[in-house]
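Chapter summary example.
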Amino acid sequence: KFDAADYLDSEEAIAEYQTAALEDKNPDALLAAVADVAKARGMATIAKESGLGRESLYKALAPGAKPRYDTILRVLHGLGVKVSVSP
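The structure predicted for these 87 residues follows.
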């Protein structure tokens, strides 16, 4: 079974994957990409870095979840990901 997390083995791969997800018109693509990166880096590590409990992190990144904006920001911070907007 294909698992994107298996291929997210460098900062460059993670950045490209996250950028593609942000460009997707489907808002669930970003959530799925964040979940894949968190899985690749280790959910326990990301939970600790973001200040969320592991169960809360799993729930926030589950397919179909509607996490709060501040939760996503905390997870992105925990991932060490910087999001920017350009014209």
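To summarize the output: Residues 5 and 52 are 20 Å apart (CA to CA).
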